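Changelog excerpt

This revision adds worked examples to the README so contributors can see how folded entries look when concatenated. The first example is reproduced verbatim below.
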Amino acid sequence: MNVRLPILMALIVSLNFSFLQTHPCLGQHFSKESSPLLAKNEAGSQQDLKGGSIPPAIEEFEKEKLAKLKKNIGRRFMFVKTNNPAVFYDSPDALERKLRVKREKEGFVITEVVQNQSGTMNFYKVKFDPGETGYLGADGNHLELKIKEGSLISVSKKGSSRKKGVSQSKALVSQAVGLVKNHPTPTGTVEKRMVDEKTRSFPNMKWKYEAKEVGKNRYRVTQYAREGVGPPLTRTWTVDLSTSTVKPENLAAKEMYQ
């Protein structure tokens, strides 16, 4: 029995070896079929790692966020130095280089919305009144937070206040001229006197009014009347808008009240 066992084991090993040599493809079957699948999975994984495609929902969100930020282009603000002031940078890609605002208050306007080179952060490109350019963080409602803190103050555009001043000045001039035109004389208002003279005696007569500010709420109104090519007759009044008072100033104006 001890002799038969080794002979039996040798015979089994010999038969297995012969079977594998006769069918070599069985040993390679798994590796051949699995290799293309592995290669395909690896390629897909590498594409995902490289950010080959952005989900539509995220892309739409980024578009909406950018559109919201761009609505602030053209808005004017005042920088105010506080305990926690707004921070500006020389470049969106060099956050270690901060732009130093020298004055306690400084006006600026948002001119553009930009991203850093990696496209991970948004910034407002701003231009300060002295001419310097800087970058202010735009993500996370940073602008709104700084307005709420008081370190940034929203103001009207630089040209708006000037236009408003010009418009207001014209309105006051018109008011002063109107008070003179409607100021009563013994034979009617100043303007009625001029119309009557033109109708009665001087058909070619033309006249106009001008007003100039001479003090707080005080104007000097001048009337120029002319017929033909000769020098105009000049009449002047002093008008106080705060009290609506009209006083003839020179002799020609005073004669209208006699």
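The second example, added in the same revision:
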Amino acid sequence: MTDTVPSWISGDEVFGRVSFEAAIRAIQRGLKAGIDPTKDFPRSVLPLNHGQLMLMPTQSSEFVGIKVLTVAPDNTALGKATIQAVYLLMDALTLSPVAFIDGAALTTLRTPATSAAVADHLAPGQVDHLVVFGSGPQAWGHVEAMRVIRSIEMVTIVDIDQGRATALATRLQASGLKSRVGSADDVRDAQLIVCATTSRTPLFNGSLVRNDSLTVAVGAYEPDTRELGSELITKAQLVVDDIGTALREAGDLIIPIAEGVIESASLIPMRDIITGVTSVDHQRPRVFKSTGMSWEDLVVASEVFRAS
């Protein structure tokens, strides 16, 4: 590549260049082609006075990338986004910057795409009811990504902020999807459940969850926080981005392991599900606990850059 001024790729351009379907297939294709999440660099989470700074570096044969992301919990009250980020993409051979990408948009695309890439294998064939906890960008993104892999009859939005929940339900209705605001007990008849919140404690009673269902949890990313209770984790087939990363960061799993109700040996890497190394257990609920990894960002960022 010749030396050029790195381009800026805005959030609108990210979604204009790469669809949810394209991002989902890129994740699946990458894992089938040999991406090994165990070799990814660990991310750094640094405490700040008003939140956290995350650094997420990784590399492939073609590119090197790093996402610099901030989490500012008090931003909601200020009318600003809680999560903000920028992604730097570099040529792998020369390490020259080739693009800066809106990191928040990239995250809104790649996290649901990763969830849907594995949900394509774990979710039941028919999804009459999708329950989504949360009403932010990740909640919306997961609905859009799940619509790629399954035909969905009804979406129920559950959020402590009824105004935001109603706004998302209305947005989904405008896109032609039957949607409403509901409660945590609606998981009782859902084939697919998505948890995309900032909650630090379990969101619903896991004993209500159907045996033929899939629950995707993406919100909690610290060892002492979780969106899922032990009653669901204990009975489910457990799939993660990467076992080592999950054991460092995923409170949804670290807490029940500490309680002695599950063992780390029960965790299955998503790569093994997507490549067919491990079979899906359709006799019990499935859980995909996503921690979000740097390789996932780079796969999607590479697609965005190539689409220029």
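Reviewer comment on example two: Residues 238 and 287 are 5 Å apart (CA to CA). The two ends are 15 Å apart (CA to CA).
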